[in-house]
């Protein structure tokens, strides 16, 4: 069986860090690869050779090409395999050109969900501020603060967005016997019952839950959706976790709610802008924990994404049903 003509497209250093030698060796057994990693900068230079490319592999740093560029430089491209999460920034022109787009979003969802579940369990114990109080004040103050928290048994946890990551978080939290409330307009009653969660409105979720975690899709409709109306209703010792997108949070409203009630906590792995401005109040508030966008795949975790992409390509070659193919309809609601 003749091998397909394949290429890597994106930033060469990122391609190498995600598609590690073992995965690349397996891919080379399945397809004949163009020897140069293609980027927007060298697209025209290699234009004539690219006209025969049938499949492409990418990851973070995938260039956003216009439809006319795809048709001109990649007229025979049949499929694009993306070893990372969101494809919102580049997928539509490829889909409009009839190119199959496959994402390893399920692989990147795993570490995000693991990170989130860990933060939720710690937040319900008052870990974050009590650790600081012990260090900067004394043990008595730290213990007094922590004792105001419910712990994890029967505590209410709010999940905003029950997509791939949100559902994985719910799955990971099952052993803790929490009461999980979910805001997701697209979640059916049937699926909610299967997940053993309670659907609620966004404001109700903020007013009832001890810990709240954002996993909304990155869409124009969700920009600024988390604002004063929600943050002002947080419980006195509540924690807000954001591993979704910074743009979904109206930052001044969150800062105001945290300043007004210092026993509240925010754990922010994403912000807008990213990184935060040096003069931002988020850097000055003791009840804000900032991490540098580490919830997603890091270190050895990135290889999982490449393996998902490789296995999907194997299914593609063998004409089997793929698990993570993206459609235009899916882009309306997915992260």
TrEMBL record:
Residues 136-295 form the D-isomer specific 2-hydroxyacid dehydrogenase NAD-binding domain. GO terms for molecular function: glyoxylate reductase (NADPH) activity; hydroxypyruvate reductase [NAD(P)H] activity; NAD binding. Pfam families: 2-Hacid_dh_C. Keywords: NAD, Oxidoreductase. It comes from the Bacteria. Gene3D superfamilies: NAD(P)-binding Rossmann-like Domain. CDD domains: 2-Hacid_dh_8. GO terms for cellular component: cytosol. This is Hydroxyacid dehydrogenase. It comes from Paenibacillus cremeus. The lineage of its organism: Bacteria, Bacillati, Bacillota, Bacilli, Bacillales.
């Amino acid at each position: 069986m003749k091998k397909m003509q394949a290429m890597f497209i994106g930033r060469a250093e990122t391609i190498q860090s995600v598609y590690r030698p073992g995965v690349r060796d397996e891919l080379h057994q399945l397809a004949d690869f163009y020897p140069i990693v293609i980027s927007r900068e060298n697209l025209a230079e290699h234009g004539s050779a690219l006209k025969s490319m049938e499949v492409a592999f990418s990851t973070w740093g995938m260039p956003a090409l216009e439809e006319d560029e795809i048709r001109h430089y990649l007229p025979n491209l049949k499929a694009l395999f993306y070893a990372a999460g969101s494809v919102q920034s580049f997928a539509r022109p490829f889909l409009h050109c009839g190119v199959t787009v496959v994402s390893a979003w399920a692989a990147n969802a795993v570490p995000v969900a693991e990170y989130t579940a860990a933060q939720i369990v710690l937040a319900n114990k008052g870990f974050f501020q009590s650790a600081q109080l012990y260090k900067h004040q004394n043990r008595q103050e730290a213990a007094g603060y922590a004792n105001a928290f419910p712990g994890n048994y029967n505590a209410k946890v709010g999940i905003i967005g029950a997509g791939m990551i949100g559902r994985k978080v719910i799955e990971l939290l099952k052993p803790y016997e929490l009461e999980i409330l979910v805001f997701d307009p697209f979640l059916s009653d049937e699926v909610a019952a299967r997940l053993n969660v309670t659907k609620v409105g966004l404001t109700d979720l903020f007013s009832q839950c001890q810990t709240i975690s954002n996993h909304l899709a990155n869409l124009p409709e969700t920009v600024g959706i988390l604002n004063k109306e929600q943050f002002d209703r947080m419980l006195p010792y509540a924690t807000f976790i954001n591993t979704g997108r910074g743009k979904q949070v109206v930052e001044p409203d969150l800062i105001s709610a945290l300043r007004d009630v210092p026993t509240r906590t925010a754990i922010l792995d994403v912000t807008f802008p990213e990184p935060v401005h040096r003069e931002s109040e988020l850097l000055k508030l003791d009840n804000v924990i900032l991490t540098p966008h580490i919830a997603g795949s890091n270190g050895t975790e990135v290889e999982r994404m490449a393996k998902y992409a490789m296995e999907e390509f194997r299914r593609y070659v063998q004409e089997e049903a793929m698990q993570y193919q993206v459609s235009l309809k899916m882009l309306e609601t997915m992260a």
